[in-house]
User: Fold these one by one.
Assistant:
Number 1:
Amino acid sequence: MAGILFIISAPSGSGKSTLVGELRKYVEGLEFSVSYTTRSPRGSEENGREYHFTTRENFERMIAEDLFLEWADVFGNYYGTARSALSQAAEHGRDLLLDIDVQGAMQVMKRMPKAVSIFIMPPGPRVLETRLRNRSVAEHMTDEAVIERRLRQAHSELEYVSRYEYAIVNDVLDTAAAELRAIVLAARGENDAATATLATCCQTASSPARLQKVLDQFSADASLR
Ligand code: ADP
Ligand code: 5GP
């Protein structure tokens, strides 16, 4: 594809959807890939908007026909990015953003090494727990077992952070949103000096202590082992 491919991953509840929503408001020329999934729609989700909702049978047929750029089993459901997302973005002359889990991200990084990869982290396990709880209350789905499972899953997903080019710690929303915007603009070469500095600070290689602090908090939490 001609444009830039951005990959965003984050443990559930870290604020990825919120940040991507902010990016949509402030950055033009980005296309958002609509994934296929076998999970059921939640809340106000619509087929073709958040996801293409499909059956396991159809998903497996698409795998057999090699129609996916990547796919993964996440929380017991299939999720996948159709290859056609790349060609569509290229036709429209736009950059493409993939919101995919760590397994899918590893596949895309291997196939498309020029992709710009961004990992969004929660500031720590207790903040993540609060966010998961608040969201589940808002969605009327307060299942303790789901929250516990997502917290443990977050711990294991965080181990992938060093494989990504950039990492954002989503503590203060406005700061994290500005960092995400800076990364996109810097990758496009549309940045001023301040934006370039902000993007560089988010490189995983340039500030490992900032990320290690979050990882240490998860490792120290006995309930997540
Ligand atoms: P994800 O898409 O990563 O699963 P969401 O974007 O749904 O996460 O965010 C999870 C919850 O945390 C939501 O209720 C959202 O409003 C809240 N949230 C996201 N970012 C922040 C932030 N920086 N500060 C406080 N709350 C946040
Ligand atoms: P949710 O069901 O909460 O919308 O998403 C669950 C997880 O699946 C998130 O981590 C999300 O990034 C991931 N996901 C969504 N679409 C895809 C996809 O096409 N491929 C992969 N590998 N993961 C996806």
Number 2:
Amino acid sequence: MSVVAATAEFIVTIDGPAGTGKSTVAYRLARRLGLEFLDTGAMYRAAALRALELGIDPADGERVAALVRDLEIRFDWRCDPPDLLVDGESVGDRIRTQEVTRAVSAVASNPIVRAAMVEAQREIASLHPRLVTEGRDQGSVVFPDAHVRIYLDARPEIRARRRVEQLAAKGIVTCEAEVLAQILERDRSDSTRRDGPLVCPRGADVVDTSDVDIDDVIDRLESIVRERAGAALRNAHRAQSDGGSLGGDGATAP
Ligand code: DC
């Protein structure tokens, strides 16, 4: 049996900017390791979608905060990947439109929204403790003691091209230069906001996906996870036989 399968709790965080392939990579890694998958960007997108539907300006901090306080965001874990429900209704691909993409940065930089999302994500992890969770702040803020913290990166031009191809596969035609400009703006806004900025988490493994095939990225992440899980397990055994506490980098005993 693999070391990951042997652990009751196991959190892998995957952070990084837009267009690094995070969602696909996180989902496929989760399946390969037998873990559940959490897309935290979808939660921010859901809040942005609901603001747009209600005619609320995404930059109107007070109204967006009031909206999120009353919003019920949850996942249907029987679906694969889990289906996002907002006030009980499945949002599907409506959270992936260009309009929502344009609105979401303002919503995600709202501190009240972030506090609500962080709390919701920790609650999800307490109910689903074997999880690959992806976003911008998962390893730095939400789960700083996760067993494995990964930071995915890629050159902006590559990320823009991937986004265009992703949208094209869904029948959405976009201009690459416009998508690149949007990505650069989103990077700027995600990494300069005061609350939960996009940063490389402490002790994270950094993987650049620019020139690497997605299958190879997943292989690489799988070997990182297995290495780290093995080390955590060995630390726990050593601590047990020494009669002492857990050593190492603060990873929880599996
Ligand atoms: O990964 P994505 O494109 O679906 O993310 C949508 C937006 O939400 C993007 O502006 C970054 C933001 N986000 C965030 O601030 N924190 C997260 N944990 C996940 C996403």
